[in-house]
Amino acid sequence: MATLCRNCGGSLIFSPGIQRVTCSLCGASYRPEEVSAADKENLQNVTPKTQAELFGSEDKASYECRIYTCSHCGGNVIINGTEASTMCVYCGNPTVVFNRVAREMRPDGILPFSISKDEAKMLIRNRLSKGLFIPKGIRKMSVDSVRGIYVPYWVVNCDFHDTVLVKAYVKSGKSSRATYFGRSGACGFVNLPLDASLRLNDNMAKRLEPFFFDDMKDFDEDYLDGFYADTSDMSTVDLRAAVLKRCDEMFSQEIISTVRAKDPTVERSCPTVNIHEDAVYVMLPVWFYTFMYNGDPHTVIVNGQTGKTVGAMPYDKRMIIGLGISLFLLILALFVLPILLMNTTESILYGTYALSGMVVAGSLALTHGIRKYKKLMRNIMDTQSSSTFLYARKRQA
Q: In 3D, which of 65, 60, 62 has the Cα closest to residue 82?
């Protein structure tokens, strides 16, 4: 069911630019809090039905799904187990599954979209074209089927304590020896956001931050109009594990920064967390764009409040190899040509210094390059997350 305009009966769609719901027919606009639907109370008891319940039988070859009836055209809308709002594939109107945002599943708040669909497309196009080694096939890709999804989040306050053993290397003469450092500490985390969907890649979700909760609104179903939305599929055990992992990662980063030695890594830790009872369940805005390239799935996501864009693009190996060969030949020419123009004594002395400089510069460049490459590959792996790809792709638009 979607809320209808009280002037003409047209469907209402939330417009991020003006922060109001707008009628698709007459153009009238209202604040979401001003709109009411007489059928909401009744629809809170209407639940999606399975194929067997609706048709009397279930095709064993088909996937498990739930079916909800569109209030505009009466069409059957297929939804997954957590969708709270979607679009009707027959008439295109928004459909809110009210029983999933009522009573026990009702969010405490919602952060409305501030970035419009057109703005999100522009940001995604910039990401697809940004980078020297991005393949032409991606640079020229048209950005279609951008999906705005309200992602469920838990926002928690907690107390964290950890005792950590850090391994690092300390220079000893001409070599390095492994040394161990002990660290212990406690801290508190306030307004820590954790995506409440097990299907989303946690690393991508974290890179979307920050969200600014000063703009949080009391939840109203009309903010969902025109967007997709999911409810949480996370249990209490899942939430506790996610909080502990997130706090441990941030705490470990701070601990490592205090160790004045080479290549520090956490060897052991004993983290504990106490989650306060004031955790809130909210919906946060995210734009999703999915595409396939060379048989691999890719997802680019945009923070629907700030416009921050996340998603590492594949690189063209031939371009990198070509650039590497060109740089090698250039450096070789810069060092070899002067040697050929010198006498024997000068060339030996110059060659010795030049070779030493090349070794040092090459080592530094190689170390930096390896670190950048590892980071890039981690980001690409997150972008290629099949679960996140299917999370956004399996929407009815």
A: 65
> Residue 134 has what DSSP assignment?
-
Q: List the one residue out of 79, 61, 82, 81 whose CA is nearest residue 70.
A: 79
pLDDT in tens, 263-304: 899 999 999 999 999 999 999 999 999 888 888 888 899 999
Q: Are 196 and 154 in contact (CB under 8 A)?
A: yes
- CA 297 and chain centroid, separation: 15
Q: Which tens digits make up the pLDDT trace of 174-229?
A: 788 899 999 999 999 999 999 998 888 888 889 999 999 999 999 888 888 888 88
Dihedral angle sign, alpha carbons of residues 96, 97, 103, 105: negative
Main-chain phi, psi angles of 64, to 5 degrees: -70, 130
Q: Is the dihedral of CA 219, 70, 43, 58 positive or negative?
A: negative
pTM confidence score: 0.74
DSSP state of 11: B
